Amino acid sequence: MLAGFAVIAEMFLQNGVSNSILRPDMEMIDRFFRPPNSSYFLFGPRGTGKSVFTQWRYPAALRLDLLEPDVHREYAARPERLRERLAAEPKVRQVVIDEVQRVPELLSVVHALIETRRGLQFILTGSSARKLRRTGVDLMAGRAVLRTLHPLMAAELGRRFSLATALRQGLVPLVFAAAQPGDVLKSYASLYLREEVQMEGLVRNIGAFSRFLEVASFSHGQPVNVSNVARECQVERKTVEGYLEVLEDLLLAFRVPVFTRRAKRELSAHPKLFLFDAGVYRSLRPSGPLDRPEEMEGAALEGLVAQHLRAWIAYRNGGESLHFWRTRSGVEVDFVVYGPETLAAIEVKRTARVRPEDLRGLQAFGVDYPQSQRLLLYCGKERLKINDVLCLPVEGFLLALHPDKLLPT
Which of 59, 92, 256, 368 is the Cys-Cys partner for 272 at CB 3.0 to 4.6 Å? Predict the structure, then answer.
């Protein structure tokens, strides 16, 4: 499926990246995402493969790409043009609308067509939920389900997966398929700033938002302290809260809440913030003589596990949710996965050897939740079991993480 990124890459490359970024020998990769048979929204950040997937899955579909200036202009002026177009093509069974958030008014027409024309499926892709959340999604009244597409998972890549490479350049398909992934990563954030933030007028001060992105990268994998971020950015707290909302609406970041179910201790109230991909985090995180490489590496590894767990949960549609656990005294577990069949606490350590202090958070969690599964993911090569904590090589865990299965053990 990555072979189809040539088309998307050319659009991306118009923004200044070398024309030789696509590897011609890239193999096709089957994604774990399984689409519903009904109409659905497919959200995901730029470059995660939404257009490639829909071109491969629905080759005969009527397609509207709202990133094309002329298409955007025509349908923004007259959304009912879609009804007229389909009236002239009665044999069409699927309609793909790429970047539907650019013309939210189209959703009223889509809603009416779903009601009146049985057997017609709409696939509505988007890289920003902001406009739709505020002006359009409610118009669908549940007629289209919500699905998400994420960066590549290790198990999708199989033997092509490399932990070191994933930590350095991430797993966004557009970047993974590039001969020069570093160049694409450098352009990735600026593409969003130019085409999503600036053109759509999402923030008033693009310079302040750019500074916020850099400062936010230091909060990757950490509970968000809005006051500290505001002070670093030299803007008001309310402005930072708005920026965080924009970042999430653009699907560039997500927050992980504290696990509080049947809590027996006083817990932290602040959620953790993660950028959606380890490579994007590395591209935004500045480094200098005062920055310790192990801090960046540790945050990148935790983020890589976070994005895998998030994709696993999304593709399973099994009702699991992702949390973390942190007491007021600072005892923490990086992730808690909770669902109908799962209560798992997961700690991530970028170390080749397990130390006693690495197990403290999991052991404390086990006291409060003795029925839980407790896993330590580390960079060693041996499977170990220490005081009811199963210690697993992180690369093997990621390769075994498959949405058709429970968490690897």
Answer: 256
